[in-house]
Amino acid sequence: MMPRTTAALFLPVVLLAAAPVRADSSSEVKKTLNADGSVSMTYWSAVEDIGTVFGMDLSKSATSAAPVITSGASDLGGTAYAKVTLSQLPDWLLWQKGTVNVSLDPNGATGKVATTFSRTVTLASGLDATLADTYRVASGTTEAWETDKSLSLKLVETGTTFSLATKATQETPTLLPSLSAQQKVLGDITVTTAVADTGSTLNRSITAGFTHRW
């Protein structure tokens, strides 16, 4: 059984499912015959009006021509998933936007739920503050949970972001802090320095990243 926290995390999905679905949607089905004779199939559908993507990744061993869902199909493996993007929450809520990710593996009796909610406020001209809260819960043969909370300050003109975060898991339930600074140095290249408390020592790191969309 999943922890009580999971019920609260499923609430946004339930609320969204109860809302009327508009016709602005798209879907795709892809079937692949692998070299070993097994077959995999991916199905996804997106409802752009409400920022929802859901689908299934299925696989079938070489003993069958295609993955077909039937009662007792023990050789059928797969995962069902859904991602909900809440781009604009009601003004009376603390959070401004959020995402909910759910994945289920019926055969393995496992499931994962992750939520992220955030709000960005302009403190002054060129200075934005973002508060974010993330929860992750996994259920199966073993249960696991993780929570992250962060406060970020972004200097828009210089492309610099300072972040203070805390993290806790089922193994280390005490909130452990971390500090980081990210600087955009050239185009889409960024450099991040971070110091994180692991509970027994301090981890220090310097990383570089490149992100580009086209």
Automatic annotation (TrEMBL):
Signal sequence region: 1-23
Key words of the record: Signal
Protein's UniProt keywords contain Signal: yes
Protein name, per record: Uncharacterized protein
